Amino acid sequence: MTKDVRKLKTERDIQHAMLQLLTTKNFRQMTVADICQASLTSRSTFYAHYLDKYDLLDQLVAKYQLIFTQKVHLRFEQMIAGEIDALVKGLLADMADNREAIRILFTVHEPAADLEAGFHDQLLAEWQRFIQEKSPTMTAPAELIAAMGTNVQVTVIEWALTHGDTSIDVVADAVNTIRGAVLRQIN
């Protein structure tokens, strides 16, 4: 069953309004009235779609987390294989339509709705799985190596969100050097 086009447009407008407000206002300071004013909707319309501003944030974070979840394993494997150009270009392609929204949501750190923490946690799980499969008895602390690898990938994501495709070659070389150092600890 498909949603009514009017409902989809209203939800899009409300979501867009929240994202725009987040560029100038802290989430906790933002009110439903602010969102309604920016989206040109009434409070009753807002509450017909969302329980409160936290529900709206939860749904936005879930939407972008799902996009990331669908690609995380592929992007992780590219990092491990040293395909850094493909990794950065792939990240940019994955985020092309949503880059600004993801960049904005990376600045919101609510306990139940933190997109950056969600990306981090998924990548950390990938690194832990990889280390367990490749080197279950390594001498360096596995948690440290997993955290280092995760931080490299999160930094690449943040860089791609902020800078787009600027200086991909230079970034790829730097990331590849760091990647090599992390992987040497596993092998």
From TrEMBL:
**Per the record's keyword annotation, is Ubl conjugation included, yes or no?**
no
Q: Which residues cross the membrane?
A: none
Which Gene3D superfamilies does the protein's record reference? Tetracycline Repressor, domain 2
Question: Annotated Gene Ontology MF terms?
Answer: DNA binding
Judging by the UniProt lineage, the source's domain of life is Bacteria
One matching Pfam family is TetR_N
Q: Does the keyword Transcription apply?
A: no
State the UniProt keywords alphabetically: DNA-binding
Q: Which InterPro entries match?
A: Homeodomain-like_sf (IPR009057), HTH-type_Tx_Regulator (IPR050624), HTH_TetR (IPR001647)
Give me the positions annotated for DNA binding: 31-50
Which positions fall inside the HTH tetR-type domain? Answer: 8-68
Protein's name in the database: HTH tetR-type domain-containing protein
Question: What is the scientific name of the source organism?
Answer: Lactiplantibacillus mudanjiangensis
